[in-house]
C-alpha cells in the first residue's frame, strides 16, 4: 500500500497553516477555520471554562476579564483566540452561526460536551463585538502608545477613517447624529473615489474631508477653516490614555445596550503581544494599565485576549518588571492557558496524519512485524530529557514520522531563530509544525506519497524544508550544499550526516553519538541500526578531516565559524601539553583543588571512612602524591591510570609496602585505560581555551557565547569521560598491603568506590588488633564527661559499655580503658616525660588500638573525679570535678590536647592534715574529730551544708532588701561550695588546707549576716526607706545638719557593706534619730510657709476684686481651691511632697490671678467695627530674684538699691517682648 493511500485526509492539498486573528471578512474562510478546528481534551477544557465564566458575567459583574494564551510557534494559540472570539461574537457565516458550526467540532464522547453546548446556547443573551489584530504588525506599533493605537483600530472597526483626530472629533460626533453614512458618501462624491480607498489614506483627501463635514453639519462648521481649527484644538488638548479608551468603549456599549435591549460586550484580541512587548517594561506597563482600567471600570463589559510565545512569568522577567505588578495583572486574567506539544500532536493526528481503516491496519501490521526493532530505531538513546517513546499507538498515529521527530522540530526551529538573532519575530510565518510535516510529505527529497508503507522520514528532510524557507543562515546553507564538492570522497550521506548534526547542535539534551545519528537518518523500518552505524563512521571521519565536525568524547559536533576556530586552538594547545602538565591538571581537576577547596577524589570514591566492627575509621587518601583526605591514621595511597601509563607496576609497590615506615599504608594501583591520556589532554586543552576566550575582551560576543556554551556542555562531558576513566581503572586495579597484592573484584551493582572500601576493610583486623577491647563510640561526649565528673548514677548506655565503675561506684581496676591509660601515663612519668592530652589521644586512636578519642577523654574524666589523675592547665593543677575550668578543658577536644596529665599521689601531708583538723574544730566547736581524711571529709560536709543553708536565707532576704553583702560573705560561700564539690576525701582535705583563710572569714561573715537578718531585718528596711526620703530633698537640707550627716554615714556603710557590724549599726541608728528630729522641724516650716502664703492671698482677695471692679461675692467662690489646700496641709507626710507645698501654694495664687483676669475680660465691652482690635495677649515670662542676683541676703540699704536697679533693668528688658510674672 502506498503512503498516499493510508491517510483519511487530503494530504496532497496544502493546508494554510497560519491563522490571522484580524482576518474576519471572508465568511467562507471563517467557516472553514471553525470546521477544521480540532477540539483536543485540553482545548475542550479551555473552551468550557471560558464559556462558563463569560456567559455568567451577562448577569454578574467581574474584574477577571482576561485570557492569556501562551505556546511555541504553530501551537495554535492564535487559532484558539480566534475561535473563542468567533463564538463570543456568534456571527452568521454562510447561513449558520459560529456556535452552530462549532457544535459539530465537539467530540460526541467529550466529557464536557453537554456543558459546552449549554453555554453556547446562552451566548446570544449578549451582543458582543470583537476587535482583533496582531499588535506587532500594526504601523508604528512599537512607537505609538498602546491606548492611541487601539483607539485608532477601534474607530476603524466602526468604519471611521484611519486619521485618529478626524475620527474622534468629526466622525464620532456625526455618527451620534446618525449621519455617518451621509458624511462618507459626501466625501466619496467630492473625491470621486470610494470611501474604502479614502479611509486608508485620509491625509491625502483632507480637503474633501473638511468640506464634507461643513456640508453635513453646517450648524457646527461654517467653512473648512473651522474644521481645521477644531482638529488643531483637539490635537493640543486631548489625552488618549487607557482611561479615555476604556470610557469611549463603555459609552458606545451603553448606547448599544439601549439599542439591542440586552447586555453588550467588547472583546479585544491582542495577538502576538509578546513580540510587541519584547523586553520593554514601558510597553508592558501600558498593557497592564489597559487591563486594569478595563477590569475596574468595565466590570466584565470589556474583555481582553493576549497571546504570547512565553508564559506571563517569562514575559515579566524579560521586561524586568516587578513581581508585585505581575501579581496585580495576574488577578485580572482568569485564564492563563499554555498550549503544549501534546496538544499540537493531537491536532497533527487529526488534520494530517489521520489514517483510514485500511491504512491504520497496514501501519499496525508493519509495527507488529518487528516492534522491538522499530522501537530501537524510533527512540533516541540516553537523552537527558524524556522524549515521546515509540510505542504502538504513537507510531501508528504519527507515521511516517517517528514520535520524537514531532517533538524535536519546534525545538529546532526555536533554536535556529534565537541563534539567528531573530528571536520570535518570525512568528506568523508558514514554518509551523503542521506546515513542515505536510510539506515534507508533499514535496520532500523523496516522493513519500508514492512510497510503500514501511518507509519513514529521515531527519535531514527537516533541514531541507527549513533551509528552503530561510530559517538556516546563508553561510551555513552554502557550506553544507558544497560538501560533496569540497570534502574528499564525500557522498550524499556525508552531506545528510552534516545536516542532521547541524540541526541538533543546540539540542543539548540529545547526545550526538553515532548511534543517535544513525537513528536520525533511518529511512525505513527495515533498516539495520548496526549496519547504518558502520556506514556513518567513514562519513564522520571525512567531515572531521575536513574540520567541519569535531569529536568530543563519544559525541560529534558540527563546526561553523567561531566553532571551527575554537577547535583549532584546542588541538594546538593539546599538542603542546607535556607529562607534567597532565599530572598537574589531573591533580587540580580530579583529585583536589586547593584554590576552590574542592575534593574531587572524595566525590568520585564516595567514602572517607572504612567500616570495622560497627565503627567507622577515617582514612587518609591521596592520588599521585596529592592529598585529598587528611584525617586518619591509615593512608590509602592511590596511583592513577596516568601513573600506570607512565610505567608504574604492581611489583614496584609490593617492594615499597614492605618498608618499616609504610606499615600503615595501603597502596592502590589503577589499571591502564586506553585513550585516557588523550581524553585528559582534550579536557585540559579545552578548559584552557575556554578560559582564554572568556577573558579576552577583544573576542566577539559570539566567541564569548561559544566559550560559555562549551564550558557548560562539552567541557562537562569531557570531564565526566575522564572521571569515568578513573572509575573504570579503579574497578580493574590492584590493592597492595605489606608486600602482598590482589586484584579488585567488584560485585554486581557495586561502584568502584564501594569495591575499594570493602577491600580496605579486610586489612583492618591486622591494623587494629586491640580495637575489640574498647569497641565503643561515645555519641554525646560532652554530656558523658559532665555526667562522669558529677558522679551521675544513670549513665548513658555507651558510657556504661566502657566499664569504668564497679557495682559500688568505685573505679573498676579491670577496665581495659582505665588500665591502658594508667599504664601509659605511669610509664612516661617514670621516664620523666611530660604527657599532654594530645599524646594520650594519639596513642590510643592509632593502631593497634583505634579507640574512640571521645572514649579516652571520658576515661580521663573518671580518673579526675577519683583523684587519680591531676590535670595541669597552664601549669596550674586542677583537681576539683566541679571546677568549670577543668570541665571545659576535658569537654573541649582542642583544649584537652594542650593540658598536661599527671598521675596523682594518694596521701595527704601530715602537717596539712593537722591544720585542716584544727580549723574544723574551731569552726564547729567540736573537739573529738579523728585525724583521718575520711573523718575530716564528713565533718566538713555537715558544716558546709549548714552554713550554705544560712547563706541562702541571707541572700534571699538581701537582694529584695538591697542589703549589701560583705566580700568575705561571698568568698566564704564560694570556698565552701568548692570544697564540698570534691568527692575524694584526699582532695577535699587538701582544698580545706589551701582555702583555710577564705573558709574562716567566710563562716564568720555568714554567721554575722544571718544574725543581723534575724534581729535587725525589719529595722534595716525602715532605715533604707528613710534614707531614700531624705535623698529626694537633699538639696533642701541644712548644710552641716543632722540629716546631711546621716546620709553621709549611710553611704559609707553601704559602700563598705558594713551594716552587719555591731558598732557601725549602732552609729547609723543614732544618726537616724537626730536626722528624724531635724526633718520634722523642716516639715513644720514648709507647712507654715505654705499656709501663710495662702492666708496672705486670701486677705488681699477682696481688695483685688474691688480694684478690678468685680463683685465681692466672687471672693467666696474663688477661695474654694485655696481653702481646700490649707485644710489638707497637715495630711501630707511624704517629705518630698511637703517640701513642695510652698510652690504649690504659689501656683494656686497664680491660678487665682488668672481667674480674676478672666472675669475682667468677660465684662469688657466688645470693640466696634471702627475701633481697633485689642492687641493679642503676649507670652508670659517668670522672673525670680535668683535670675538677677546669686546672693539673696541683704545687709545694707546700698545692697537693696543695687538689687532694685538690677531687677528694674531686667523687668523692663523683658517687657519689650513678654508679660512678666514675678515669682
TrEMBL record:
Pfam families listed in its UniProt record: WHD_BREX_BrxC
Probable ATP-binding protein BrxC winged helix-turn-helix domain mapped to chain residues: 819-899
Coiled coil: none
Stretch list, region Disordered: 1160-1179
Record-linked InterPro entries: BREX_BrxC, BREX_BrxC_wHTH, P-loop_NTPase
Superkingdom of origin: Bacteria
NCBIfam families reported in the protein's UniProt record: BREX_BrxC
Protein name: ATPase-like protein
Provenance organism: Caballeronia arvi
Amino acid at each position: 500500500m502506498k503512503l498516499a493511500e493510508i491517510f483519511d485526509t487530503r494530504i496532497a492539498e496544502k493546508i494554510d497553516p497560519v491563522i490571522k486573528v484580524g482576518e474576519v471578512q471572508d465568511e467562507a474562510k471563517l467557516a472553514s477555520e471553525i470546521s477544521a478546528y480540532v477540539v483536543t481534551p485540553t482545548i475542550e477544557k479551555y473552551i468550557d471554562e471560558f464559556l462558563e465564566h463569560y456567559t455568567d458575567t451577562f448577569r454578574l459583574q467581574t474584574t477577571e476579564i482576561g485570557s492569556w494564551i501562551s505556546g511555541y510557534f504553530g501551537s495554535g494559540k492564535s487559532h484558539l483566540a480566534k475561535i473563542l472570539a468567533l463564538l463570543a461574537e456568534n456571527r452568521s457565516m454562510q447561513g449558520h452561526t459560529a456556535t452552530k458550526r462549532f457544535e459539530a467540532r465537539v467530540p460526541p464522547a467529550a466529557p464536557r460536551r453537554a456543558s459546552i453546548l449549554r453555554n453556547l446556547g446562552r451566548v446570544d443573551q449578549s451582543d458582543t463585538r470583537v476587535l482583533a489584530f496582531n499588535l506587532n504588525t500594526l504601523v508604528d506599533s512599537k512607537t505609538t502608545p498602546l491606548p492611541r493605537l487601539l483607539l485608532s483600530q477601534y474607530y476603524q472597526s466602526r468604519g471611521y477613517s484611519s486619521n485618529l483626530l478626524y475620527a474622534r472629533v468629526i466622525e464620532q460626533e456625526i455618527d451620534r447624529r446618525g449621519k455617518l453614512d451621509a458624511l462618507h458618501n459626501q466625501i466619496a462624491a467630492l473625491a470621486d473615489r470610494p470611501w474604502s480607498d479614502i479611509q486608508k489614506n485620509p491625509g491625502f483627501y483632507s480637503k474633501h474631508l473638511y468640506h464634507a463635514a461643513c456640508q453635513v453639519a453646517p450648524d457646527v462648521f461654517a467653512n473648512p477653516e473651522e474644521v481645521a481649527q477644531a482638529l488643531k484644538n483637539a490635537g493640543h488638548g486631548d489625552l488618549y490614555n487607557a482611561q479615555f479608551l476604556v470610557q469611549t468603549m463603555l459609552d458606545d456599549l451603553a448606547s448599544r445596550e439601549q439599542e439591542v435591549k440586552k447586555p453588550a460586550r467588547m472583546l479585544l484580541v491582542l495577538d502576538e503581544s509578546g513580540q510587541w512587548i519584547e523586553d520593554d517594561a514601558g510597553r508592558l506597563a501600558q498593557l497592564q494599565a489597559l487591563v486594569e482600567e478595563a477590569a475596574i471600570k468595565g466590570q466584565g463589559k470589556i474583555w481582553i485576549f493576549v497571546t504570547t510565545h512565553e508564559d506571563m512569568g517569562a514575559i515579566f522577567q524579560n521586561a524586568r518588571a516587578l513581581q508585585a505588578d505581575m501579581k496585580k495583572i495576574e488577578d485580572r486574567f482568569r485564564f492563563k492557558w499554555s498550549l503544549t506539544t501534546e496538544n499540537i500532536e493531537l491536532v497533527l493526528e487529526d488534520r494530517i496524519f489521520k489514517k483510514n481503516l485500511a491504512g491504520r491496519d497496514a501501519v499496525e501490521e508493519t509495527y507488529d512485524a518487528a516492534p522491538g526493532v522499530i522501537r530501537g530505531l524510533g527512540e533516541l538513546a540516553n537523552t537527558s530529557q524524556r522524549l515521546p517513546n515509540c510505542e504502538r499507538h504513537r507510531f501508528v498515529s504519527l507515521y511516517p514520522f517517528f514520535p520524537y521527530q514531532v517533538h524535536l522540530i519546534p525545538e529546532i526551529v526555536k533554536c535556529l531563530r534565537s541563534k539567528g538573532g531573530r528571536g520570535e519575530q518570525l512568528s506568523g510565518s508558514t514554518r509551523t509544525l503542521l506546515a513542515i510535516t505536510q510539506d515534507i510529505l508533499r514535496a520532500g527529497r523523496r516522493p513519500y506519497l508514492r512510497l510503500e508503507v514501511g518507509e519513514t522520514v529521515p531527519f535531514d528532510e527537516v533541514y531541507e524544508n527549513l533551509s528552503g524557507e530561510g530559517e538556516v543562515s546563508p553561510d551555513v546553507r552554502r557550506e553544507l550544499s558544497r560538501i560533496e564538492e569540497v570534502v574528499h570522497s564525500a557522498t550524499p550521506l556525508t552531506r545528510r550526516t552534516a545536516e542532521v548534526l547541524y540541526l541538533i547542535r543546540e539540542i543539548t539534551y540529545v547526545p550526538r553519538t553515532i548511534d543517535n545519528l544513525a537513528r536520525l537518518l533511518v529511512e525505513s523500518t527495515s533498516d539495520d541500526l548496526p549496519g547504518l552505524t558502520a556506514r556513518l563512521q567513514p562519513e564522520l571521519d571525512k567531515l572531521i578531516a575536513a574540520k567541519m565536525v569535531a569529536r568530543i568524547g563519544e559525541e560529534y559536533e558540527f563546526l561553523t565559524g567561531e566553532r571551527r576556530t575554537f577547535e583549532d586552538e584546542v588541538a594546538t594547545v593539546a599538542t603542546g601539553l607535556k607529562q607534567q602538565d597532565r599530572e598537574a591538571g589531573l591533580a587540580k581537576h580530579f583529585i583536589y583543588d586547593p584554590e576552590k577547596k574542592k575534593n574531587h577524589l572524595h566525590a568520585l570514591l564516595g567514602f572517607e571512612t572504612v567500616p570495622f566492627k560497627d565503627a567507622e575509621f577515617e582514612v587518609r587518601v591521596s592520588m599521585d602524591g596529592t592529598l585529598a583526605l587528611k584525617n586518619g591514621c591509615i593512608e590509602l595511597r592511590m596511583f592513577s591510570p596516568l601513573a600506570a601509563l607512565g610505567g608504574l607496576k604492581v611489583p614496584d609497590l609490593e617492594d615499597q609496602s614492605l618498608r618499616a615506615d609504610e606499615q600503615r599504608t595501603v597502596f592502590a594501583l589503577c589499571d591502564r585505560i586506553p585513550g585516557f591520556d588523550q581524553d585528559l589532554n582534550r579536557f585540559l586543552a579545552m578548559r584552557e581555551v575556554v578560559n582564554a576566550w572568556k577573558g579576552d575582551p577583544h573576542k566577539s560576543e559570539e566567541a564569548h557565547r561559544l566559550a560559555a556554551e562549551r564550558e557548560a556542555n562539552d567541557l562537562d562531558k569531557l570531564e565526566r569521560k575522564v572521571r569515568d576513566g578513573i572509575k573504570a581503572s579503579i574497578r580493574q586495579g590492584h590493592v597492595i598491603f605489606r608486600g602482598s597484592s590482589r586484584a579488585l573484584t567488584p560485585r554486581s551493582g557495586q561502584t568502584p568506590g564501594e569495591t575499594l572500601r570493602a577491600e580496605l576493610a579486610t586489612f583492618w583486623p591486622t591494623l587494629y588488633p586491640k580495637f575489640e577491647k574498647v569497641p565503643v563510640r561515645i555519641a554525646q561526649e560532652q554530656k558523658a564527661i559532665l555526667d562522669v565528673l558529677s558522679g551521675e548514677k544513670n549513665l548513658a548506655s555507651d558510657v556504661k559499655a566502657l566499664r569504668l565503675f564497679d557495682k559500688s561506684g568505685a573505679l573498676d581496676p579491670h577496665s581495659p580503658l582505665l588500665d591502658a591509660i594508667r599504664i601509659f601515663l605511669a610509664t612516661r612519668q617514670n621516664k620523666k616525660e611530660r604527657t599532654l592530652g594530645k599524646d594520650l589521644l594519639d596513642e590510643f586512636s592509632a593502631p593497634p588500638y583505634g579507640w574512640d578519642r571521645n572514649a579516652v577523654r571520658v576515661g580521663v574524666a573518671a580518673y579526675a573525679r577519683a583523684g587519680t589523675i591531676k590535670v595541669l592547665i597552664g601549669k596550674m593543677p586542677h583537681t576539683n570535678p566541679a571546677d568549670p575550668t577543668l570541665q571545659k578543658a576535658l569537654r573541649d577536644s582542642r583544649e584537652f590536647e594542650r593540658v598536661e596529665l599527671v598521675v596523682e599521689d594518694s596521701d595527704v601531708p601530715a602537717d596539712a592534715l593537722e591544720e585542716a583538723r584544727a580549723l574544723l574544730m574551731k569552726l564547729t566547736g567540736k573537739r573529738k574529730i579523728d585525724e583521718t581524711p575520711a573523718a575530716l571529709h564528713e565533718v566538713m560536709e555537715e558544716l558546709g551544708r549548714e552554713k550554705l543553708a544560712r547563706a541562702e536565707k541571707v541572700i534571699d532576704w538581701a537582694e529584695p532588701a538591697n542589703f549589701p553583702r560583705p566580700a568575705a560573705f561571698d568568698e566564704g560561700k564560694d570556698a565552701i561550695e568548692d570544697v564540698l564539690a570534691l568527692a575524694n576525701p584526699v582532695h577535699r582535705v587538701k582544698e580545706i588546707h589551701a582555702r583555710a583563710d577564705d573558709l574562716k572569714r567566710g563562716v564568720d561573715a555568714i554567721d554575722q549576716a544571718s544574725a543581723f537578718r534575724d534581729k535587725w531585718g525589719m529595722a534595716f528596711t525602715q532605715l533604707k526607706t528613710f534614707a531614700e526620703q531624705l535623698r529626694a530633698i537633699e538639696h533642701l537640707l541644712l548644710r552641716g545638719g543632722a540629716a546631711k550627716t546621716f546620709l553621709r554615714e549611710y553611704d559609707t556603710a553601704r559602700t563598705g557593706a558594713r551594716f552587719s557590724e555591731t558598732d557601725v549599726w549602732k552609729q547609723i541608728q543614732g544618726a537616724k534619730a537626730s536626722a528624724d528630729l531635724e526633718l520634722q522641724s523642716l516639715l513644720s516650716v514648709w507647712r507654715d510657709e505654705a499656709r501663710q502664703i495662702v492666708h496672705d492671698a486670701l486677705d488681699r482677695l477682696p481688695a483685688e476684686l474691688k480694684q478690678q471692679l468685680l463683685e465681692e461675692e466672687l471672693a467666696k467662690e474663688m477661695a474654694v481651691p485655696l481653702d481646700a489646700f490649707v485644710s489638707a496641709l497637715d495630711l501630707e507626710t511624704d517629705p518630698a511632697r511637703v517640701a513642695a507645698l510652698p510652690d504649690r501654694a504659689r501656683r494656686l495664687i497664680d491660678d487665682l490671678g488668672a481667674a480674676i483676669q478672666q472675669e475682667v475680660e468677660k465684662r469688657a465691652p466688645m470693640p466696634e467695627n471702627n475701633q481697633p482690635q485689642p492687641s493679642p495677649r503676649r507670652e508670659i515670662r517668670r522672673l525670680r530674684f535668683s535670675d538677677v542676683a546669686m546672693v539673696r541676703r541683704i545687709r545694707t540699704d546700698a545692697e537693696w538699691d543695687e538689687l532694685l536697679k538690677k531687677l528694674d533693668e531686667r523687668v523692663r528688658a523683658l517687657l519689650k517682648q513678654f508679660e512678666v510674672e514675678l515669682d
